[in-house]
Amino acid sequence: MNKVNRSSSARFGKELRSRASLGGAVSLIALALAGPAWAQQADQASVADAATEADIVVTGIRGSLQRNLDIKRASSGVVDVISAEDIGKFPDSNVAASLQRLPGVSIQRNGARGEPQGITVRGFGGDFNETLIDGRRLSTASGGRSVDFTTVGADFVGQLAVYKTPEVSLSSSSIGATLNISYPKPFDKPGTRVALSAAGSVQDEAGKVVPTVGGLFSTTFADDTMGILVDAIYTRRDTQTNRVYVSGWQGGRYRPCQLTAACTAAELAAPGTIVGWYQQQYGADQRYTKDERIDGRVAFQWQPSDDVVLTIDDNYSRQKVTTDIDGFGVWFNQGDLRNVVLDSNGTTTNFIQAGTPTDFTAGTDKNILETNQVGLNIKWDATENLQIDADASYSKSRLNPDGQVSSEGADIGYGGLLGTSLGVKVTGNSKDSFPEFTTYGPAGNQARWTDQSIIGSHVTVRTAQQNSDEIKQFRLGATWKQDDLTIKVGARYMEDEFSLQNRNTFANNYWQAYAGYGAPSGRSTGVPIPASLIQGTISTKDWLPGFSGNLPPVLLNYDARTYSKYLESLWTGPNTPGYNNGCCTGFNGTIDLALDPGSVQNILEKSWSAWISANFKTEIAGMPFHFNAGGREEITKVISSGIGRVPISITGSTADPTLLTVAFSDPQPVTESSSYSYFLPALDMKLELTDTLHLRFDASRTLTRPRLDYLGPVLNVGAGQRVGALTATGNNPFLKPYLADNFDLGMEWYYQRNSYAAVNLFLKDVSNFIVAGTQRQTINGVIDPTTGQPAIFTVSARVNGPDATVKGIELAWQHVFGDSGFGFNANATFVETNKPYDSSDLSQSGFAVTGLANSANLVAFYDKNGFEFRTAVNWRDKYLLQFGQAQNNSAFGAEPTFVNSALQIDLSTNIRLTDQISVFGEALNVTNETYSTHGRFSNQLLDVYGYGRRFTAGVRYRF
């Protein structure tokens, strides 16, 4: 055996044994060390057999499932694995789509694109799950802890490992799970390898075939002591999505007269007494999204001696997402609603608002996310028993790195004299119906809904969001192995610096420069929109599959950027016809952006970790027993900086009575710091009752740190506000991490090759939940010009709050029918909590555990004689996504957002034409499922997206 083969095989076995040594309580390490003679009696067969089978590379679905099962079986902790079926052939085109096939794992979708964007593990989503790339944290410019899986190319992923119980030498941020994505390296298989793929995909609504092209080259040389691997792939996805939305259901109290057609001044002056929720804004739009991603990777390995392996790698990705939007939107205020009809829950199911303006909206969102991670790893077998592992990496992620405008938005329409006594009626459940107008059109004339002769300018919203996240990390670990005893010690330093700022047209009030709609609406501000700016109309017929509800017949199609340029071309000075004179200090005709001081944040988080664990095997009554005990100390310091200011006045708009402008005190820099430390023990035990029946028990404490963008030190009041919707947001630099005490009890039956059945019970006691509560309060005594009273702001802020318990059961069954080629993988998860959502709770500090939902997955397949076919069925029940909605001004705190239950069916096939060439196909969402959300009650629709079906066909070549 040459150097690479010998060392590679040894490293693989060590990796498996490392995975088998998932942490345990440090208080029990002394017991492990005190009984080495007992430990020496352990049977090494299970791990050795797993390593031997893993060295045999079997391609295809069945080979992949067997490799996954071998690793799961050998591990002492609860680990699930997904392996590539062949080089350049991952089971799904999206990493999260593959992960949802695992027990206890479900996904969150990006509504507009339909793409799996994040995962939930045992009810804990997003930031509760840490994603690592080859054991390293990956920077993410979103401000959260989670990784957007639409930015991770799946084509050349080697393996995904989901650690549901913690590995103390790997991570601590795993209340949900720790995900480790492993990419291939040249020493994995010495020699020269090439993999090429090309595919075209089409979404049925977009109707445009777009490409995916990739290639991988790997070779070893210099007597197989050096190797290099290079891969790159370009992926494009086009999606056209139809949407209906309510931007927020706001809770408040109606006056009794509002249930009739009219109110007197005295009646309106009295306080409201009837609890109800109303729609802040209602609308619909169509979105065309072009998602382009480039992924590239270089890995170099050098083995200067039998005992040392050096690896240098660089992972790069750049995703550009451009979305063009056309739609309409109408705005409501609770105090202006009449003929209000409420259902038994208090949901406003019908109403009329006099003089309602109508806006036709357009926008272009363009965001670029660029991430690069470079790393150096050295593995040294210092002695026969001792291995040293040193790892250093640098990762930087930038959102809109060139500072370009990321969002162009425009509203045109009619109001004033042409305002409508407009009504919206709720007719059913948010799963299959959307609200609809009872009246619409200028002054109620539906035939003139899009009459271009009366449409004028309203507002122009331009934003430039710019974030960066920079991570530096260094890890040093040592592993001692002697007979059946393994001891690990190590330490890690990590520095994570997150910065963000936003420039927009709210900060300088330029968004209102031509507000008012113009002369047809009876206003002196605003200008008519020339017909040349309107590019046509979009039919709303058969708008959403499976949904009832009527929309106006068409939407206007125009370009927000062209609209802005037209307004800029009108400028002749402050007396320009239609200009909202006095709105905008310093305005010179160009709708420029200005820095929003309240958006500026810089968060520096430094963390130090140290760990120790012991792993041994022995026998109990002749049954092999695996025991791991360990602990991890986490020390964290946070330095949070921002720019603070307070409002000093609020003024109304003469151009549009719905708009408000806030003036501020001079900005001042603000810096705060905090620190905390926690000890995190872990214990894993596995008893092999028979060769095929394994019993597991695991106990641990884990933590999840707050999102970095939650740690800002200032209260931010936006400069551009709306009547009846004054808002402010506050973060908290003193937030502590979530803490969880976790317990697992499982039984696994490996009754034949590539087949098993398992049941796993889990319980998590979580404290320090971060609550995004709201309260209504005055700020600096400023007066609301619409009421003459101190302005009441809805202030959203985050604090550490209550505790909660989550418990559940996972069921899994994988079966292959002999040599027939047929098989299936099925699982179901059932979860519950002692803190479910209480829709009757009207306090401003309502709390519930988010993300919890029952789920089930089934993958049925055929794999034989070079032909593969797979059907994947994924179901997830309704769940609470978050507290907060797009507009959140409720008197009853942060209103909830629920995601409705959904079932999606995907199909895929692969045909091997020769040993080197195969063709493949994929059909996603074959039943045309939609994505929909609702508020406190099931008929309070928030969003519904029809993201259509997607079909892909392509060819792979490898040798």
List the defining traits of the structure above.
959 residues; mainly beta; Maltoporin, Chain A; 28-stranded antiparallel sheet; 8 helices; globular; disordered N terminus
How would you describe this structure to a colleague?
By secondary structure, the protein is mainly beta. Helix content is 8%, strand content 53%. The chain contains eight helices and 53 strands. The strands form nine sheets. It has a 28-stranded antiparallel β-sheet that branches. A five-stranded mixed β-sheet has the order 1-7-8-5-6. Helix 1 crosses helix 4 and helix 4 runs antiparallel to helix 5. The longest helix has 18 residues. The relative contact order is 0.14. Pfam families: Plug (PF07715), TonB_dep_Rec_b-barrel (PF00593).
Write the layout of secondary structure elements.
Elements: H1 3-20, H2 29-34, H3 36-39, H4 45-55, H5 60-74, E1 79-83, H6 95-99, E2 105-109, E3 116-121, E4 124-125, E5 129-133, E6 136-137, E7 159-163, E8 177-182, E9 193-203, E10 210-221, E11 226-246, E12 249-254, H7 265-269, E13 274-279, E14 281-305, E15 308-331, E16 337-342, E17 348-356, E18 358-381, E19 386-399, E20 407-414, E21 420-425, E22 436-439, E23 456-482, E24 485-504, E25 534-539, E26 554-558, H8 560-569, E27 594-595, E28 601-620, E29 623-644, E30 647-652, E31 659-664, E32 668-688, E33 693-704, E34 715-717, E35 720-722, E36 727-730, E37 738-752, E38 755-767, E39 770-777, E40 783-784, E41 789-790, E42 793-800, E43 804-816, E44 822-833, E45 855-864, E46 867-876, E47 879-883, E48 896-899, E49 902-912, E50 917-924, E51 931-934, E52 941-946, E53 950-958
Parallel strand pairs: 5-8, 36-42
Antiparallel strand pairs: 1-7, 2-3, 3-4, 5-6, 7-8, 9-10, 9-53, 10-11, 11-14, 11-52, 12-13, 14-15, 15-18, 16-17, 17-21, 18-19, 18-20, 19-23, 20-23, 21-22, 23-24, 24-27, 24-28, 25-26, 28-29, 29-32, 30-31, 31-35, 32-33, 33-37, 34-36, 37-38, 38-43, 39-42, 40-41, 43-44, 44-45, 45-46, 46-49, 47-48, ...
Helix pairs in contact: 1-4, 4-5
Family: Belongs to the TonB-dependent receptor family.
Membrane topology: Multi-pass membrane protein
Keywords: Cell outer membrane, Membrane, Receptor, Signal, TonB box, Transmembrane, Transmembrane beta strand, Transport
